[in-house]
Structure formats: structure tokens, C-alpha cells
Amino acid sequence: MTTTTEAPRRAWTVQVMGMPVSIHVRGGNPHGSQARDAVERAYATLRDVDARFSPFRADSELSRLRRGELTLAAASDDLRLVERLCRTAVERTAGAFDPWRWRDGFDPTGLVKGWAVARAGELLREVDGDVLVDAGGDVLAWSRSGRPWVVGIEDPTDRSRVLARVPLLDGAVATSGPAARGAHIVDPRTGEPAAGVLSATVVGPSILWADVAATTAVVLGPAAEAWTSTLHGTSGLLVLAGGRVHRWANPT
Amino acid sequence: MKVSKLVAAGLGTLAGVVAVFLYPTSTNRPAPGQADGNGSSASSGAVAGSGSGSGTGSGSGSSGSASSSSGSASSGSSSGSGASSSGSSSGSGSSGTSGSSAKSGTYTGDVVQTRWGPVQVEITVSGGTITAARAVQYPHGNGRDEQINGYALPILEQEVVSAQSDKIDAVSGATVTSDGYISSLQSAIDQAFHA
Fold first, then answer.
1. Which domain holds residue B195?
2. What pLDDT score does B188 carry?
3. Claim to verify: residue B57 and residue B121 sit in the same structural domain
4. Which of chain A's residues have a Cβ under 8 Å away from the Cβ of B91?
5. Where is the segment annotated Disordered (chain B) (predicted)?
6. Which of A39, A180, B154, B187 has a CA that sits 20 to 30 A from residue B100's CA?
């Protein structure tokens, strides 16, 4: 895979937050202690977020909030920040992304993943060299060398294939599909499973907002194509039911 | 008409970029004429390389020709009023289709001086459509400036790219579970670089 002239490169993979998260370091000293320590801290952050914000753990802070044992006012700064971000997401998507209405009660899982990966990314900024994080199919990466990371976009009809690729110097690529994790994405405005978009990929500066936008596009279904023109400073690709592909690249 | 729309889209793209730089000038009270200078050169120089004659949109940008949403961006930037957000919706133009006869290729605009440094925009035209617009030169004041560069249009693969591909570094797809990961392309990539 590598050629002799390429920069040294190393990858780690850990199962956390219910998904495999891999971290790649290219160039610099990927086998040194600085990279190793930063990577360990990044994974520790993801484990910590999972312990606190998983709705599947009865003892998590989120679960206590959901059961009414904890008020938002008494919650941690992080949980209140996540809640604020969720409200912003509802506003930005006109309710197509709504952590209050897609499942029972307040469940910010769809936003927490991107938020957690962004946080882990901050800890990786100290690593020399180029860094890429792939969190279960959502990618955050930057390049100090000037050589872009090349991110393939999975073909939703054949997940062993790559449909397109996008060079990434500094930013995120998030993809959502209606059958992610085997559970349908539900339109919170109707309660019905979303249909019409087989997969939505959004490339942008923030993994959190790229992820929210990709999920929203799936919820919007056929209306997603026009909606992508409102995503300033992003590019991306929709695979529509029937196989047609819509691409966009909007300036900032 | 088609050509002017195309050019307007290009102008809007540049104006959108420049408007970002202009925005603070309206609050910082720049030297008189500075914003105007930036704006007008942005409007006239946008697609200088296109050579498609028809005015290269010289007027359409600064007059806010309303041929598309890019009008607001253009007028905003040339007046220096700094309506940075209004310009951005012009992005739809960059992926829109147009049946114009513009020759396929890459066109590079003039360098526009802004108070943060030079900005230069390049557009790629293919089959009469602007398929990409990017800043090839932009100021390096802080790390976030690079994001003005925007993000490239995803490149469709011309042939089947399978798990054996060595062209990609990561795969973005609907969330993989641990079961799915074992058979995924991403796991192959990761394993290639482990330790």
C-alpha cells in the first residue's frame, strides 16, 4: 500500500461508542511517544463521552437526565453544551433533525458522536504530521504536509465499493444512510422512516455539523437536493433512490 | 444569456470569497476607497481568463444583475457593505448546470488584493458547467483562513474501486458496526498501517 518514498504512517483502531474508531498519523514521528500519548488521550475522551452521554448505559449522566433524576440546570457543562448544540441543530434544520422527537425523550446521540470526535480531534492537534480520524464512517482529518488525505465515499448499494473520492486538507466528511446501524432514520416531523436518499455525504469544516447535515439530508428525502444549496462552505454528494447522484460544492 | 449566467456564477463565487474578507472592513472603518477597490476589482477580474468575450460579466457583478442569488453577493462586496452571508448562497451556481458553450478547462482570475493579503480564484468548467471553484491563493493570517478554500466537489470514480484500492486513505459511509467493520474496506486500510 505504501511506497518506499512515502512518509511513515501508523494506524490505531479501537472499538468505542459502539463503533470502530481508527486514527491515522502520517509523517512526523507516528511511532513516537508524542503521537501515542495523544492518540491514547483521544480514545480516553471518546470513552469518557460514551460513559457520560450514552442512552444505553443506565448509569450515564444522560440517562439520569432522561429519567428525570437530574435537571439540566444541575447537569455538567458538557451536557448543557450538548443540549444547546441540539437546540441549534433543530433551528438550523427546521426540525428535520430533532433530538427531542426521534426517539423517546431527549436523545442527543446523533449529535454527540460528531461532538465527541471533534473533541478527540482537538487533543490530536498537537501531533506532528498529518492526522485522520475515521469514526465509524465519519472522517475528520487535516494535513500539515500539504498532501491531502483522500477519502472514499462508500457506494450505498454495494458497501464494498467506493463511489467517489474527495481530497481533504482540513475538515470533515460525514455520511448518513437510511439503514445506518440497521435502524431506520425516522423523520421527527412525521414519525415515518425517511426515504428517497440512499446516502448523504457532507464535506465541511466541522464534523459535528457535517454529520448533522448528512442526517438531515436523509430525513429530507427528495427535498434534500435543493436543500444542499443552503449548506454554505460545504461540498458533498447525495445518492438518490434510483441511483442518481447529486453533487455540490458551495463557497463559504 | 447562458454564458452570462455562467460568468455570474463565477463572479458570485469570487464575490462570496471576497465578501468574507470585506466583512470586517465595514466594522473597522477602512481607509476610504479600500473596500471599493477590492470590490470592483473582484467584480471585473473574476473570470478574466475565460476569454468568452461577452463582457465577462463586467457589469453584471457590480450591478447586482439579479440573474441569480449571486447578485446580492456581488453588490454587497463591491459596495463594501459586507453582506458576507448573503453572498454564500451563490454557491448553487457552482454546481448548477448551464448549457453554455464555454470551453472546458480551468480559468484563473486576477489576483485581488485585500487587506489580509492576495486572493485569487480558479474555476473549472466542464461540459458548460462550473464543476469547481476554489481559491488558489489566499492569505495565511491564521489557520482558519484555509477554510475559505472551500471543499472540492467529490470526484466520481470512473471505474469500480474495490477493497484492493490503494488510492484512498479512508472510507466515509453509513455508520459501521463492529460486525460490519470486519469486512469493510476501512478495516483493510487500517490493518495496512497498523504498528
1. 157-195
2. 81
3. yes
4. 229, 232, 248-251
5. 25-106
6. B154
Is residue A4 assigned to a domain? Answer: no
Rounded to an integer, the average pLDDT of B116-141 is 68
CA distance B137 to chain A (A): 14
Domain shared by B93 and B37, yes or no:
yes
Nearest to A206 by CA among A93, A121, A147: A121
| pTM attached to this predicted model | 0.67
For residue A82, is pLDDT > 90?
yes
The reply to whether B192 and B133 lie within a common domain is no
Do B116 and B161 sit in the same domain of this protein? no
Q: Among the residues of chain B, which ranges form H helices?
A: 2-28, 34-45, 58-62, 70-79, 84-87, 92-95, 178-182, 185-192
Confidence of residue B117 (pLDDT cuts 50, 70, 90): low
CB A108 within 8 A of CB A99: yes
CA A153 – CA A173 distance, rounded (Å):
9
Asked if A176 lies within 8 A of B157 by C-beta distance, the reply is no
Per-residue buried b or exposed e for A64-98, using 16+ beta carbons within 10 Å of the residue's own CB: bbbeeebeeeebeebbeebbebbeebbebbebbbb
- What residues make up the domain containing A96? 9-249
pLDDT at residue A252, rounded to an integer: 77
Asked if B20 reaches chain A (Cβ–Cβ under 8 Å), the answer is yes
**Three-class SS of residue A66?**
helix
pLDDT tens-digit map of B95-113: 333 444 678 888 877 777 6
Cβ–Cβ contact B164 with A under 8 A: no
CATH number, domain of A225, equals: 3.10.520.10
Interchain contact, B189 vs A11, CB within 8 Å:
yes
Collect all residues of chain A within an 8 Å Cβ-Cβ radius of residue B153. 166, 235, 247-249
- Put simply, whether B150 touches A (Cβ < 8 Å) is yes
Ramachandran class of B184: left when φ > 0, alpha when ψ lies in -120 to 50, beta otherwise: beta
B155 and chain A in contact, CB less than 8 A:
yes
**B192 with A12: Cβ contact below 8 A:** no
Q: Is there a domain that residue A28 lies in?
A: yes
In a domain? residue A2: no
**Residue B16: how many other CB atoms lie within 10 Å:** 35
Same domain for B10 and B101, yes or no, is yes
Which residue in the block uniquely carries the three cell numbers 470514480?
B157
B97–chain A Cβ distance below 8 A for any pair: no
Using the Cβ of A190 and the Cβ atoms of chain B, whether some distance falls under 8 Å is answered with no
C-alpha cell at B136: 488558489
> Chain B within 8 Å of A199 (Cβ-Cβ)?
yes
Sign of the four-CA dihedral B152, B16, A215, A20: positive
B166 and B125 within one domain = no
